[in-house]
Amino acid sequence: MAKELKDLTKRADNYSQWYNDLVVKADLAEQSAVRGCMVIKPYGYAIWEKMQRQLDAMFKETGVQNAYFPMLIPKSFLSREAEHVEGFAKECAVVTHYRLKAKEDKSGVEVDPNAKLEEELIIRPTSETIIWNTYKNWIQSWRDLPLMCNQWCNVMRWEMRTRPFLRTSEFLWQEGHTAHATREEAEAEAQKMLHVYADFAEKWMAVPVLQGVKSETERFAGALDTYTIEAMMQDGKALQSGTSHFLGQNFAKAFDVTYLNKENKPEYVWATSWGVSTRLIGALIMTHSDDNGLVLPPRLAPIQVVIIPISKGGEQLQAIDAKVQPIVDALKQKGISVKYDNAENKRPGFKFADYELKGVPVRLVLGARDLENGTIEVMRRDTLEKETVALEGIADYVENLLDTIQDNIFEKARKYRDERVYECDNYEEFKEKIKDGGFFLCHWDGTAETEAKIKEETQATIRCVPFAYEQTPGVDMVSGKPAKCRVIIARSY
User: How far apart are CA 126 and CA 92, in angstroms?
Assistant: First the structure.
């Protein structure tokens, strides 16, 4: 067994350390020289690329087009929408000068005091302000609507406590920004994109999610409504995995974005924004992986199948190579990513452990005896089960097995989640049970005071008003006041 695997912390011993270990040992990312920022390594970036390709296709199916907007935003832009600036002010990195100069003693460099910017610039924490300042030049009449753009980019939010993928000062994401003629169109767009995120999470990531709407306290700064998908990690904590915001006319009014309607009268447009980030890689890790390493859903695995020969080299290896090549070709023709690792500088046992650690969904092993018998050993990463099957028809067998694995890890995660959704009406009982994690369906009186008390006393927050559960009036377990609905309350990342 590889040393990297032996050194992997067990989930039961320290879940947080297990996660940090796995990110590094599975070659996904590492800390950079810049505090709070990470280097995404090729294997981790390959997962993001697969996510990006699929999401991009799903966005474009709805009529969205890609664009790119500047990373630097004039500070005055941020102040135009009051709630927006209040929500992001503490996280902003500010550019004040545009040049350095060598110190007089030649010991290094320093900021050139003569190169101070006339207006300071913000490194984008999100792009609503720069985009809406642009949209006012693009929108004149109802014929220009809807306007639906998305950009793939990085953003900067100065985080004090960071963790790879889950919360870093700089991260990669996509942000969609749309403009509409009516409130109804904008609200429908915001909810449509939420469903796109949910479909992606469940069908591609194999991560079950609850869809819902955020409380006023938890909504995006400057939004009228924030819709969310919430996933449960293996420690019972929630991870907000994607959000879509109905912005109303707040940004249109702040940046004077109007259009002439069909009666030739000016009206402010209605807006949405929506985004997911590399946090989704963290969701993948914490939803499916185990004490042996990553467990990746086949649809997002950079390598879906690895083939490893067992030989003494020389002619024996050449014979296996010749047998494997048609298998590789057949798998590739089916659109399956496959790696044949016949390198002789590493023992098979090391390769087994390494690909297991990296979560490759299917491992095929072929040795001299298999050549004689016309068989091959198949191991599936999700259950670690092995079986010996006929070489004939192996490509079809693997194709079906990958679909089975995808379905299985989703059902496993869904069962785990559903068994930990609790209906609760007693606050003292809630305070005890929340320590072990889970999603709690509780009546809420709708007040920020009750929400704040729960957070202060239990470190849990209202994740959303869920769409999946029938809503009935009741009594708030904390205040005893009437409540119109139940909300999901959980501790979260």
Answer: 10
Strand partners, 307: 340, 364
User: Helix or strand or coil: residue 246?
Assistant: strand
The pLDDT of residue 465: 97
Q: For residues 87 and 371, what is the distance between their CA atoms, to the nearest angstrom?
A: 64
Helical spans, DSSP H, in 419-480: 427-433, 448-458
**For residue 5, what pLDDT is reported?**
54
Length of the chain: 493
d(C-alpha 207, C-alpha 233), whole Å: 9
Q: For residue 226, how many C-alpha atoms fall within 13 Å in the half-sphere facing its CB?
A: 21
pLDDT of 319: 95
Report the first-to-last Cα separation within the chain, whole angstroms. 32
In sequence order, the β-bridge partners of residue 152 are 174
Q: Which helix (H) or strand (E) holds 55?
A: helix 42-61
Looking at residue 79, its pLDDT comes to 84
CA angle 36, 41, 46 (to 5 degrees): 120
Distance of CA 273 to the CA centre of its chain: 16
Q: Are the CB atoms for 191 and 227 separated by under 8 Å?
A: yes
Alpha-carbon torsion, ordered 263, 266, 270, 273, to 10 deg: 130
**pLDDT digits 0-9 by tens, 54-97:** 999 999 999 999 999 999 999 999 888 878 878 888 999 999 99
pLDDT under 50: residue ranges of the chain = 1-2
Residue ranges of domains in the chain, CATH in brackets: 27-95+112-288 (3.30.930.10), 298-404 (3.40.50.800), 421-490 (3.30.110.30)
Give Cβ neighbours of residue 20 (< 8 Å, ≥ 6 apart). 163, 164
Helix (H) or strand (E) holding 228: strand 225-232
What does the pLDDT read at residue 41? 98
Residues with Cβ < 8 Å from 347, sequence gap 6 or more?
A: none
Q: Is 459 exposed, middle or buried (0-12, 13-18, 19+ CB in 10 A)?
A: exposed
114 — phi, psi (to 5°)? Answer: -85, 0
The pLDDT value recorded for residue 1 is 44
User: Which of 289-317 are b and which e, b meaning 16 or more Cβ less than 10 Å from the residue's Cβ?
Assistant: bbeebbbbbbbbbbbbbbbbbebeeeeeb
Residue 238: exposure state from Cβ atoms within 10 A (0-12, 13-18, ≥19): buried
Helix (H) or strand (E) holding 224: none
pLDDT digits (tens, 9 = 90+) for 289-345: 999 999 999 999 999 999 999 998 899 999 999 999 999 999 999 999 999 999 999
Beta bridge partners of 74: 121
Contact 266, 257 (CB under 8 A): no
